[in-house]
Every structure is written in C-alpha cells, then in structure tokens.
C-alpha cells in the first residue's frame, strides 16, 4: 500500500478499528483478507467493512494473514491486487520460502540506526585485529574516543561486547567482513 493509503488510514483512525488485530492473529491459522473476501465478513461493523472496501479501492484485493512461528503477537497481512485463486497459486508456489522471506524483512524493519562513518571505521579496524591504541593511532584520535565509538556502536547494535558488535555489523552489512580495503 502506498503512502497515500497509509496517510488516509491514519487520518480516518482505522488503526483503532482494523479487524485484522481481532480476527487474523490466531497462531497456526491463516485467514483470508481483503475486499475479495468481504462477503464472508458481514459480521464486521460498518466502519470496518468500509475500511476493507477502501483498501480494495486502493489496490488490496485479496490477501491472507500469516503469523511466524516463535513470534507470538506478530502477524503479517500479505495483501495483493490478485484474484484469490491467483494468490492461492502464488502462495502454494512460494511454500516454505514465504516465512523465511518475512523473517528477513522483519529483521530489516527492526534494523538498528545506522552507524556513523567513524563507528564503522573503528569496527573495520577491529576486524583487522587491531587493539584500541592501534586503532586510535591509525585514525589519529585518542583511545578514549575509540572506546566511545565502540560503545555507541554496541548500543546501536544491541551488543554487549565489541566482538558481538562486530559480528552484528558484519551480518547486517554495515561493515565489510574483511576490514579496511587496501590492506596489505
């Protein structure tokens, strides 16, 4: 859904009445969603039905809910402009890769704030095996400043140690896994 729809959704207060949260978050059970399924949703109040109609007008024709295993209270509403039969075929073709793709997307959405250039540089020198004093010398800063950059990077990455911070930064593509370019 585009930014215009999201703005409309928020302006109408639809987040407070969206039936998805009440009806589509049952663990182990996927529910059909979208305007194509509105006939089966006559139990919803008129405002909720209008929300679904308007979403359909904005392009959300058919979809389904999906809760990822091991993530209670987190559900995705996978919407499309496809007819229900076409969406069912696509879903069948995706099979087990759909939950994996959603997990990766969730990780991306939950990504920490970006590292500053100096925080990334400190971590890249750390990947080279340099100690704090050596990093400080290479960067022409004090060892205390190196430690401040490392502490800030650890905080942003949710890491307890500098090694954990380096691993998280590499896994998230925030620093190169082999440290500084042009090493020799």
Automatic annotation (TrEMBL):
Domain HTH luxR-type: 108-173
Domain of life: Bacteria
Keywords for this protein: DNA-binding, Transcription, Transcription regulation
GO biological process, one term: regulation of DNA-templated transcription
UniProt keyword Transcription present: yes
PROSITE patterns xrefs: HTH_LUXR_1 (PS00622), HTH_LUXR_2 (PS50043)
Cleavable signal peptide: none
Keyword set includes DNA-binding: yes
One annotated GO molecular function: DNA binding
Protein's name in the database: DNA-binding CsgD family transcriptional regulator
């Amino acid at each position: 859904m585009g930014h215009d729809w999201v703005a409309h959704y928020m302006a109408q207060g639809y987040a407070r009445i969206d039936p998805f949260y009440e009806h589509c978050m049952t663990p182990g059970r996927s529910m059909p969603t979208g305007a194509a399924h509105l006939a089966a949703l006559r139990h919803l109040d008129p405002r909720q039905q209008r929300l679904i109609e308007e979403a359909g007008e904005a392009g959300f024709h058919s979809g389904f809910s999906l809760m990822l295993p091991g993530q209670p209270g987190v559900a995705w509403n996978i919407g499309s402009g496809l007819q229900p039969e076409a969406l069912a075929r696509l879903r069948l073709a995706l099979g087990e890769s759909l939950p994996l793709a959603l997990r990766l997307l969730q990780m991306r959405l939950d990504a920490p704030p970006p590292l500053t250039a100096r925080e990334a540089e400190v971590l890249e020198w750390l990947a080279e095996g340099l100690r704090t004093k050596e990093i400080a010398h290479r960067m022409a800063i004090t060892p205390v400043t190196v430690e401040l950059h490392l502490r800030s990077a650890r905080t942003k990455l949710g890491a307890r140690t500098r090694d954990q911070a380096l691993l998280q930064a590499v896994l998230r593509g925030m620093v190169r896994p082999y440290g500084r370019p042009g090493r020799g």
